[in-house]
């Protein structure tokens, strides 16, 4: 049995060697010495991360290499894990931190553990320093999410992690989450966690499909982190990509003046000057926090396009610099230069200077901030407001009041100077001018108000209007305002008048177009985050098909309309040439010819028909007048079009049409005289026509159901006699003479009518049965001759 023991021992040693020896040395991965300090490790990691980032390196092994670099960096930056590796060579590394955990790594028992003294808690699981206690400490409820985090997200973005107790991947996420908290929370990113099992409603609302899931809550919207790799760098990139467009504007020598002079939007200006290619996240977060009051610009100090800016404001090249400007664009109100400007310091500087010298009352929030209600205060807080209009002509009075505010020594806690646009805040101005001694025209007048509460204010108007400093009464007006303010501050006298005011209109609110574009942008962001490429392509195909059908239909309708307009113009010319009754212009008869053929036949819309009368030049005038009179009752029917065909021009087309309606092709000899007076109803969409002729079975008296049933057979089996006479088949063209039977009365033979001419119909009687036939046509009881296609109309 000794050989079995030796075999078992050899295999065990081999397994242990594989477990301990095959792990790569994190020092070798990062290329640093074992004595390297944190700064050297961080520098080496940044260099390798840029080189092997999967988005920048097309090498197939780039992703695996990047994961190795990240894991090695995290191990060496953790003092406890680095110490264990240096002492025992144990990395305690779990698999790569991905959203798809490999549960095969977590086994409860292995004989090798017991044999060599490695317990599951120290070799296989190594989770003694990884617990989810930190998740429980940061956990929020659905109520806290709705009432606290969502409102705060309009100024502070929040990273929220969804987890559960029995989630191994969540346990692996714990050190990464700690790093995220350490890096992002101090610069202004809020962090929180949600226990998915305890908050099912919030999980459903956010759309959590797997754990762990990280979301970014910004502007009240939750955006999912979709990357498979959890790392601080990836999370920072994710957060940066979700800020509003141009939150921090790039500024250089060309646009510096435009940026600084844009304070008319009622916001102060801040320039962030850095020696980096892009602005740092801490400054973006500051711009997001104060976006309603401050406009941020970014200057890359080493750029050749920013040399004048750097020289003008004496910006140091080796430090980050913050410059704050109000209406005075020549020199900043506040400035600060440090290698890393603390967040708290920036908050202090901006909070003390976030309003212009003479701000505008442009919203209720601005009104509440500049002139808050203070009925409980023992001393009044006065607000001095200049009523003006949004015009350059009032810039001078506003500048005069701005200078007055700078020269006075009143504390901003006691007196605030501001102006308002009369045309935008009409309700507010109307409430202030309803009292006695109010100026009839408040423009360029100053009113002093004291807010007793959110709705009720007390006020007094300055008697003189507020002009520019060149006016003779300027000194008296200035002295009057100063005296009035001093009197109201020092005495307990109340202001003379009282008014109830409504909330101010938000002049910065988005318009209809802006809201629509914002909705489109939000929808596109949602589709980009939740719709995969496999789902997107079929949807785009369907949308493209529908759009193509709509555009093609519109284009076809446009062509039909053009054709109809062309037909109307040409028919009006044709009708005037025929000397028809000019009083009947409400019903137009269009001539069927090559130019109008498509519009009258081929391009007819579904449900529309064209009724055409066949005439020659000789019978044209007489038959068209009678035809016009017969179809006159149908003039208001929008689905009908009426016209005529001149047989001298269209006989060949008519012959082709009749040949297509026959079951077998035949060589036809048509007598044009026998075709005169024929009426055909053409359905261009369904490709059939109905026919009227005085000798057609449908038009003859005494017809019955058997006669109608035999009609098609008689048409297809025509021979001599009258079977095809109504179509013009009775005689050949050689028999067509000037003395045709249509023009003559019935000849006499031995004093009796000849059989050949017994059924002759005269020209004036050809359309006698048309009215009855039209009734049957619209009832659908006439016979339909179907064809495969419409023949071309010869030129």
Beta content comes to 5-15%
Quaternary structure state of the chains depicted: single chain
Helix fraction, binned, reads: 40-55%
How can the largest sheet be summarized? Answer: 6 strands, mixed
Q: Quick one: overall form? A: flat
Cα-based radius of gyration, to the nearest Å: 46 Å
- Please count the beta strands (DSSP E, at least 2 residues each): 22
Q: Roughly what is the average pLDDT, rounded to an integer?
A: 80
Q: How large is the count of helical segments?
A: 29
Low-confidence stretches: 6-22, 92-129, 576-585, 701-709, 715-757
Q: Distance N terminus to C terminus?
A: 111 Å
Strand order of the largest sheet: 15-17-16-18-19-22
The structure class reads: alpha/beta
Function: Plays an important role in regulating the size of autophagosomes during the formation process.
Transmembrane segments: 536-560
Main location: endoplasmic reticulum
Biased composition (Acidic residues): 732-741
